[in-house]
TrEMBL record:
Pfam families: HTH_3. Residues 52-88 form the HTH cro/C1-type domain. This is Helix-turn-helix domain-containing protein. It comes from Cypionkella sinensis. InterPro entries: Cro/C1-type_HTH, Lambda_DNA-bd_dom_sf.
């Protein structure tokens, strides 16, 4: 199901026989996966390789796609998931952040990710100019000059 060793279901499942042997049906599996992911996200310990792989799977990302998001190549992600390379602190934090972003409504998530990518690309140019902010009716906003 999840590939995680330390997950125990107390109820919400039915054991049954199939033509291939013993089987298990799990009620509301998408909600279960979300509950497991939220548990993983909120634990203070470093992610295990299996937890890292589980979160990537829930994000529906390939190893290469996740690598692009966190700044490593797909082979590094594969080594994280196999346990042959320790998961770096930044990679651990970034996959957690991307999972939380994934919980946002789709239009907000796409806008935020697009803005983040643009900001990273423009980083060198933006460093030459100070960040400018303007107060507008009690709300601060970035003032763009251009």
């Amino acid at each position: 199901m999840s590939g995680l060793d330390d997950v125990v279901l107390l109820n919400g499942f039915v054991r049954h026989e199939t033509e291939y042997g013993d089987g298990v049906s799990i009620d509301h599996v998408d909600n279960l996966h979300l509950a497991i992911a939220l548990h993983i996200l909120t634990t203070k310990k470093a992610l295990s390789p299996k937890e890292f792989r589980f979160l990537r799977g829930e994000l529906e990302l390939t190893q290469d796609a996740l690598g692009d998001l966190i700044g490593v190549d797909g082979q590094t992600v594969a080594r994280y998931e196999k346990g042959s390379t320790p998961i770096s602190g930044p990679a651990d934090r970034l996959i957690r952040v991307f999972f939380v972003i994934n919980l946002m409504p789709e239009d907000q998530m796409k806008n935020l990710l697009s803005e983040m990518k643009d900001a990273i690309k423009q980083d060198e140019l933006d460093q030459k100019e100070p960040a400018r902010f303007r107060e507008n009716h009690g709300k601060w906003e970035e003032a763009y000059c251009g």
